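Throughout our pipeline, every protein is held as a single compact record rather than as scattered files. Such a record has a labelled line for the sequence and another for the backbone structure tokens. This encoding replaces a full spatial description with a residue-level series of whole-number codes. For reference, a complete record is included directly beneath this paragraph.
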Amino acid sequence: MAPRLTPLVASLPATVPFVGPETGERARGVPFRARLGANESVFGPSPKAIAAMAEAAAVAWRYGDPEAHDLRAAVAAHHGVGPENIMLGEGIDGLLGYLVRMLVTPGTPVVTSLGTYPTFNYHVTGYGGVLRAVPYNGDATDPLALATAARESGAPLVYLANPDNPMGGWHSAGMISALIAALPEDAVLCLDEAYADFAPPEAIPPIDVSEPRVIRMRTFSKAHGLAGARIGYAIGHADLIAAFDRVRNHFGLGVMAQAGALAALSDRRWLAEVVARVAEGRARLGEIAAARGLRALPSATNFVTIDCGRDGAFARRVLAGMIARGVFIRMPFVAPQDRCVRISVGRPAELAIVAQALPAALDEAERATRHA
């Protein structure tokens, strides 16, 4: 007998927002030589975070503090806000799911950018929301068009990633402020700042927790190198933050994740070192692209989007060629941005593999295109 799914779930197609590199490795039968498609920090966590997690492993028989009291207080102090303005969760992905559950019911319009981070769309669709996707303007999201779409549709929720995934670009704090000012009074802007640690200061507006229309998402997955620990946080007005307690998994954060994040937050020297190494890696990826006449788009993240110079079909051939050569990268775009591929920053040895594999993949794609 088939399970009695809800009508909404039964109507949805099976969806996997991201296919992990492990799936590709199982299909190929060998590991990737370079794992550069998930925007993980190959430089790893702070040694202090590793030590803290190792120590916490001895008490892994315990559930994590459901209030994440110590970490919540430390994050709040770091940002100069109160603990009532911070909510911890299972990465930004988990927090997005809770936020959508709080604001979206079947038929609710929700505004986002066409081709941006797909997990947000996954949650919206899963709760029956109706996506209104605004096209990119060139290779950048269009903040003021998002506000217009929110006013026209009556959407209670608007999503913007700044810096953007998958393109890597960013908007100024002034543009973000203009977007907030243009929003309807009863709409909430979810400002996904997963890559804020890599961004120039002018891209990140000051935090104002008195503004009830904005909730900002940060993570320990990127610059802090704790993607596998699954821990992120939201910053916002106390009333909106308090609403998370009505729907969240109160035991979602384990003791090791909380200990690692707390130690990582305190190690500013390690964070600065990682940010510097990422900047060097972005520059190297730009050189690799330029050596073949390709353009690397400006990036304020730990990845570089490379314009392959043709169309989506050509870029998919390049992607397949890189995968065949043991280099895991991604092409998470929609047309016309699907002419690009996205490569996470790696260590020098991994970038040397990219420098070797990319020209061969391009040559192969060009031959296949000529004979198509």
About this structure: The mean pLDDT is 97. The first strand starts at residue 34 and ends at 35. The CA atoms of residues 46 and 270 lie 6 Å apart. The chain is about 40% helix and 15% strand.
